[in-house]
UniProtKB/TrEMBL annotation:
Keywords: Methyltransferase, Transferase. InterPro entries: 23S_rRNA_MeTrnsfrase_RlmA, Methyltransf_11, SAM-dependent_MTases_sf. Coiled coil: none annotated. This is Methyltransferase type 11. It comes from the Bacteria. CDD domains: AdoMet_MTases. GO terms for biological process: methylation. Pfam families: Methyltransf_11 (PF08241). GO terms for molecular function: methyltransferase activity. Residues 52-139 form the Methyltransferase type domain.
Length: 252
């Protein structure tokens, strides 16, 4: 069995660019939402003419669509991810534009009949509504309020759960932007971490779980996590996910 120091060294050495989670196989698990976002998104892409994926990460999910629309665009705010996405999406004819998560979108009004986003950091609902063509659809899987709070609390101590990511708040924001919400579903999903290296990689990759995380800053808490897993088995947390689909009304 690897020592705490060996696991820490491994956790610090794993690359964390992009949204490829294949490294976690055998080290951590996460239950998948029942609605299967990637399949549903792929079905919608196959019917679209002009589509946009916001905050695409490294393009991992978008690259898996079975059929690309004639016009396929993506945005990404982090340059290393944008470079990965350009490589992944080139075979689909996809173009990637570097845009910050909270910035205005560099597209004309009504440019897209489909806008999608998986786990956006922030949502500019006004910009989503603006770039959607009349009758166009926004389709997104998002992180819900209190996601993985058990891990946050273990590392940082008890923290208040922000309601910024509450699904009903998303409904209200979409409606205020002029969109009609057609579907809103949420689920809590079981996660298990089998060693402290997996915890470290997750916290380095999903940076909002413990803001400003470093091994040095939370060394004692990581030691406690290592002991907890050794004594009790996998550390259990729950991710929160919701699916939202909204439409820009057609012109009369």
């Amino acid at each position: 069995m690897a020592s705490f120091e060996e696991l820490v060294a491994e956790g610090e050495s794993v690359p964390v660019e992009g949204w490829d989670f294949s490294w976690f196989a055998g080290r951590a698990t996460e239950q998948r939402p029942s609605w299967r976002y990637a399949r549903l998104m792929g079905d919608r892409m196959a019917q679209a003419e002009r589509a946009l994926d916001l905050q695409t990460g490294g393009g991992e999910v978008l690259a898996g669509i079975p059929k690309a629309p004639p016009v396929l665009m993506a945005t990404e705010g982090w340059p290393p991810n944008a470079a990965l996405a350009r490589t992944r999406l080139a075979p689909l004819g996809g173009q990637v534009v570097e845009v910050g998560e909270s910035d205005d979108l560099p597209f004309d009004d009504g440019s897209f009949d489909l806008v999608v986003s998986r786990h956006p950091v922030t949502i500019r609902w006004d910009e989503v509504a603006r770039v959607l063509a009349p009758g166009g659809t926004y389709f997104s899987q998002q992180v819900g309020a209190g996601s993985v709070h058990e891990l946050t609390d273990f590392i940082m101590g008890p923290q208040p759960i922000s309601q910024v990511r509450d699904p009903e708040r998303a409904r209200s924001a979409a409606t205020a932007a002029g969109l009609t919400v057609q579907e809103l579903r949420s689920e809590a999903l079981r996660m298990e971490f089998f060693d402290v290296a997996a915890v470290i990689v997750f916290l380095r990759k999903v940076i909002w779980t413990v803001p400003s995380f470093t091994v040095r800053a939370y060394y004692d808490h990581l030691q406690a996590m290592h002991a907890h897993i050794g004594n009790h088995g996998p550390f259990v947390a729950h991710s929160q996910r919701f699916l939202i689909e909204a439409q820009r009304p057609s012109r009369r």
